[in-house]
TrEMBL record:
<keyword id="KW-0067">ATP-binding</keyword>
<dbReference type="GO" id="GO:0008764">
    <property type="term" value="F:UDP-N-acetylmuramoylalanine-D-glutamate ligase activity"/>
</dbReference>
<keyword id="KW-0133">Cell shape</keyword>
<dbReference type="GO" id="GO:0051301">
    <property type="term" value="P:cell division"/>
</dbReference>
<dbReference type="Pfam" id="PF21799">
    <property type="entry name" value="MurD-like_N"/>
</dbReference>
<keyword id="KW-0132">Cell division</keyword>
<protein>
    <recommendedName>
        <fullName>UDP-N-acetylmuramoylalanine--D-glutamate ligase</fullName>
        <ecNumber>6.3.2.9</ecNumber>
    </recommendedName>
</protein>
<keyword id="KW-0547">Nucleotide-binding</keyword>
<dbReference type="GO" id="GO:0008360">
    <property type="term" value="P:regulation of cell shape"/>
</dbReference>
<keyword id="KW-0961">Cell wall biogenesis/degradation</keyword>
<comment type="function">
    <text>Cell wall formation. Catalyzes the addition of glutamate to the nucleotide precursor UDP-N-acetylmuramoyl-L-alanine (UMA).</text>
</comment>
<dbReference type="InterPro" id="IPR036565">
    <property type="entry name" value="Mur-like_cat_sf"/>
</dbReference>
<dbReference type="GO" id="GO:0005524">
    <property type="term" value="F:ATP binding"/>
</dbReference>
<keyword id="KW-0573">Peptidoglycan synthesis</keyword>
<keyword id="KW-0436">Ligase</keyword>
<keyword id="KW-0131">Cell cycle</keyword>
<dbReference type="InterPro" id="IPR005762">
    <property type="entry name" value="MurD"/>
</dbReference>
Amino acid sequence: MQGDTAVIGLGLTGQSVLRHLAPTGRLAWAFDTRPTLDTAPAEALVPNLPIYMGSLPESAWTGIQRVVVSPGIAVSSPVLAPARVRGIEILGDVELFAQATDTPVIAITGSNGKSTVTTLVAQLLQAAGLRAPAGGNLGTPALDLLTQPADVYVLELSSFQLETTFSLRPAAAAVLNLSEDHMDRYADLEAYAAAKRRILDGAALAVLPPELAHWARADQSLRIFDPAPPEDEAAYGVQDGWLCRGGQKLVPVSALAQPTAHMLRNALAALALVEPLKLTPAQMTAAVSAFQGLPHRTEHIPTQDGIRWINDSKGTNVGATLAALNSFAQRQPVILLLGGVGKGQDFSPLAQAVQTQARSVIVYGQDRDAIAGALAGHPDLTVVDSFEEAMALARQRAQAGDTVLFSPACASFDEFPNYVARGEAFKRVVMGHEQ
């Protein structure tokens, strides 16, 4: 019997889909838009499966009833036009995950902070003795988590993944924040927001910042998180040096390795998300105290030169850079490095914060002119071509007592394969100077 399911995209997510569907006998073919991609991993997973590269013959769609697409491929993509015309079901790996398990799920999205909150939620649950594998848009693809014993799954979900997810019913779901991102994929901010909001559709508990509280449904439990004194007994906030729910003290602020406003928000969201699991304050404090943050997210690179070097390579949008700038500008003079691929963003929201909080600004990369145009009023703004030149100039300008904040507000693809490679390059330059 010929299979009725096609798979488009053969990266890590696509390979997880092949692993999941191979035993079902429903696979018909796989396809990737990259003509030179190494297909050996896919061929090893499903021997003799037809694999198309670069282009797809029209005849391949005959008999197909559903197509599973990787997150990087938009539903509106031309490659999916034949599926749309034929009324073929288009779904993603997270939808397959949702159909395959009844185990409770905690789901997290947002423009920034997703990975940090996802990791912290998993550590909170593990501190309470629960098996809580974490993945999705972070690390392990969702479908591969199904092979791990679990009391609760913790999923980081991107807007791309949520576009093709319909059956997920999280025990708790959070939208951490919303700022422009992926404007090269979405028509406008509202289209991007609509994709993010989908995470709440089937959630029993919605965890939201005050500005997004109206997204919760009337029949949904709602928890607001905000690093201010809680307004009611259901709100999570900060008061008298404690992370609190209402008037209940949960975790001392001193337990956080980085007690910045951004990290306080992340920790409050994580505590709200695990509320249904009824952790004790002692369990919460143990997990929060042990959490040291993630690489490339406002990561301090220790040096002996008296300069505070901050690697925020994961800051790939304006909102992330604003959060990082607000976290560090109150402490020391800031030299800000930013640039790369702007993804169609409007950089003007950075202008006021940069004007008042950055002593010096260095802009580089593919969209340097657009960024520099938005920040043109800054008295010490320099534009260079490359990351290497930006780092050399930062080194030249930085003095003991300064903070050099590398928070690019952009994707890395003009010079690096991903934000990790970019962050590692930053660390190599900083540490190389130390040696």
